[in-house]
């Protein structure tokens, strides 16, 4: 990669800033049980970073053809109702370790910080976490026509920040998100296991492990 002057970081929400995967799992599990469709915690890993509709399609699998569009819409709404019940329990304590420190350090260095999430509950989650005001832009599931792995949500965030995509880094915990950021021509920072985020330019185990100096130094030197 050529030399990059990073001017903005776009953070995925679920799995990077907070861990809502467990709540998504419990909500999908309740729906799956009601529909008599098998669904395990392991199956849930496939839904990481994936849109609500695509999640339902994966969950139903071979049973998908049994359902009419209206039934699919009803199931998505039902799952979201269960999910939002869990969101009511979220507080500032649900920020992932290192998330707030990363955001504060970026801002201190004059780097813009945005959210780029597939979730249509982004605003609700950020409000519960008490951090809505600290972002320079918020791009969510309402902003993008195409879900990740299409780059739309990140491109929208970059546009909102008025910063070229090439000058943006994206932090992601999901394979679909890493692919989306790569497709958008951005520097990609993966958090999580190799099999999920291995294609990213930089990989760390968790948000708390992100080494900002390493990223800024390497990108500035064109050493990515
Ligand atoms: C992503 C989550 O951030 O948002 C996915 O990783 C989720 O698991 C997707 O399906 C859509 O979220 P929502 O809140 O719009 O149903
Ligand atoms: Mg995520």
Task: Describe the protein.
This protein is an alpha/beta fold and 224 residues long. It has helices at 21-35, 41-44, 52-60, 69-87, 99-108, 122-129, 152-161, 175-183, 194-197, 212-220, and strands at residues 8-11, 112-116, 137-139, 168-172, 187-191, 202-204. The protein has a 6-stranded parallel beta sheet with strand order 3-2-1-4-5-6. Strand 5 (187-191), helix 9 and strand 6 form a beta-alpha-beta unit. Helix 1 crosses helix 4. The longest helix is centred in the middle third of the chain and has 19 residues, at 69-87. Magnesium ion is lined by residues 12, 14-16, 48-49, 173-174, 177.
What's the arrangement of strands in the largest beta sheet? 3-2-1-4-5-6
Average pLDDT: 96
Distance between the termini: 6 Å
Structural class: alpha/beta
Would you report the number of β strands?
Answer: 6
Helix content: 40-55%
What is Rg? Answer: 17 Å
What characteristics describe this protein?
globular, alpha/beta, binds magnesium ion, 224 residues, binds 6-O-phosphono-beta-D-glucopyranose, 10 helices, single chain, 6 strands
Write the layout of secondary structure elements.
Layout: E1 8-11, H1 21-35, H2 41-44, H3 52-60, H4 69-87, H5 99-108, E2 112-116, H6 122-129, E3 137-139, H7 152-161, E4 168-172, H8 175-183, E5 187-191, H9 194-197, E6 202-204, H10 212-220
Parallel strand pairs: 1-2, 1-4, 2-3, 4-5, 5-6
Helix pairs in contact: 1-4
This protein binds 6-O-phosphono-beta-D-glucopyranose and magnesium ion.
């Amino acid at each position: 990669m050529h030399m990059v002057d990073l001017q903005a970081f776009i953070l995925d929400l679920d799995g990077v800033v907070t861990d809502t995967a467990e709540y998504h799992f419990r909500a999908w599990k309740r729906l799956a049980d009601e529909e008599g469709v098998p669904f395990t915690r392991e199956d849930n890993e496939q839904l990481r970073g994936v849109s609500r509709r695509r999640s339902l399609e994966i969950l139903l699998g071979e049973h998908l053809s049994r359902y009419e569009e209206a039934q699919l819409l009803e199931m998505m709404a039902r799952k979201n109702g269960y999910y939002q019940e869990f969101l009511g329990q979220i507080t500032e304590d649900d920020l992932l370790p290192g998330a707030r420190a990363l955001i504060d350090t970026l801002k201190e260095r004059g780097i813009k910080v945005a959210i780029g999430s597939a979730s249509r509950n982004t605003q609700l989650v950020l409000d519960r976490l008490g951090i809505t005001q600290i972002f320079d832009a918020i791009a969510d599931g309402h902003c993008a026509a195409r879900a990740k792995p299409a780059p739309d949500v990140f491109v929208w965030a970059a546009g909102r920040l008025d910063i070229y995509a090439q000058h943006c880094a994206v932090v992601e915990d999901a394979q679909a998100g890493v692919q989306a950021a790569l497709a958008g021509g951005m520097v990609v920072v993966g958090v999580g296991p190799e099999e999920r985020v291995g294609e990213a330019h930089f990989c760390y185990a968790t948000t708390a492990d992100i080494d900002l100096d390493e990223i800024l130094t390497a990108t500035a030197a064109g050493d990515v």
